[in-house]
Amino acid sequence: MHELGVAILAAGQGTRMRSELNKVLHPVLGKPMILWSVGFAQQLGAGAVTLVIGNGAEAVQETVGDGVQYTLQAERLGTGHAALQAKCSLEGRTRTVLVLYGDMPTLRLETLQALVALHTARRPAVTLLSVLSDDSMGFGRVVRDAQGRACAIVEEAVATPEIMALQELNCGVYCFDAEWLWRRLPEVPQTMPKGEYYLTDTVGLAVADGLGVEVLRISDVSEVQGINTRVHLAEAERILRRRINEQHMLNGVTLADPDTAYIEPDVLIGPDTVIQPNTSLQGQTRIGAHAVIGPNSVVRDSILGDHCRVTGSCVEGATMEDHAEIGPFGHLRAGAHLAQGVHLGNYGEVKASYIGPGTKMGHLSYVGNARVGAHVNIGAGTVTCNYDGQAKHETVIGDGAFIGSGAMLVAPVNIGANARIGAGAVVTHDVPAGGLVYGVPARDHSSSDKEQPREG
Ligand code: UD1
Ligand code: CA
User: Fold this and answer.
1) Phi and psi, residue 151, nearest 5°
2) Measuring CA to CA, which of 2, 149, 322, 433 is 20 to 30 A from 86?
3) Phi, psi (5° rounding) for residue 118?
4) Catalytic member of 2, 290, 363, 375
5) What's the chain's average pLDDT?
6) Ligand 1: which residue has its CA nearest to atom 19?
7) CATH code at 254-444
8) What is the value of pTM for the model shown?
9) Confidence band for 456, pLDDT divided at 50, 70 and 90
């Protein structure tokens, strides 16, 4: 039997999002909300995870995949009823059951670890998470007896003024003794007027059974705000972003304006790198030390070495080796690879191409499906014409080549090392190493007077 099983309640309709997308699929810092909860379960080492989903939630299964089990709550009859749906898949498989919601991405893993640790140390029937707050947020109140032991959770709908005044709130996160939960949960009564089954009533049941109820009380309400609206969504993003940004700053990264640095959770950044304002670092991005990224840049799923510079540019699915630079207004697309010290100036685009060390491409150029050597000069407005309307073709440029401004390199085409291409040439045939071509279409002038090219 596993120690820990997790039931994630996510059958709510999420109507207040006013969205065609299921609430728990809305991304929070680039990651669908539900994957934050699933991630917590995995990081806690859960041996079994069950997602309670509602009608029409196939998209949730598609997003989360096969790593968890699913159970359908066909009718939304309350949190107690939702948790009960997980009984079939979890009963007899785990000693403890952690119940989480699918809409609380700002929880800290450390908090959940502490909750599980408290539960496994004391082995009560229930260990619940509470928070002290003078803003009730509509949460249920934790009621304690004369000895200060938690004895009930009371929802606002049925609370007396005395209970309404209590400031210890139920967060909706619990550890249960599994054997006890699956035996007693079916006996939770239906609550009027809405006819719901409240998971919170398990606390009263445990007390009635003479069993213990433990509470882990936290003070940071930012951890436990569920997301019901897009206002909450933005707030959750802000909370998570601030935590991530603080960690990077403590690791030695300078954020010129932490409020406009949008750094997703999986991004790694080396020390003494500076992130300038209004910059998004997304997905599986890794940036070395002493780099300067931004302002006004997006780097997604890319690997950047040390001392790189990205100024006002978009870098997606690309690699930049040490001392490579791009921008302003540059665009690296999937498979772009800039070797050491490559300089890409303004209005350059590179896709599915390797650009060798020290090569310069200063202005207004497009390089796609190309292999470019070292120390090549790519003049302003050069284009690799890689697409013939049906298929993509490759351009190869050897080391030290000089491509004049406005050259059109019609792929497939091979430009030899140290070859020279005249300005405005339309190159439709291979050029040998050291060759000289120009004109439309470009012709070989290698043997002619290099200072005074004439028609060939
Ligand atoms: C619940 C708690 C309340 C606590 C609050 C914290 C109960 C009765 N009350 O309140 O004490 O302070 O959470 O946020 O448990 N869900 C289902 N199926 C259902 C009902 C809910 O899957 O039939 C899921 C929702 O998708 C949601 C979560 O359970 O993720 C919580 O539901 P919600 O209606 O927000 O709980 P509250 O009644 O607000
Ligand atoms: Ca709620």
Assistant:
1) -130, -10
2) 149
3) -60, -45
4) 363
5) 96
6) 78
7) 2.160.10.10
8) 0.91
9) very low
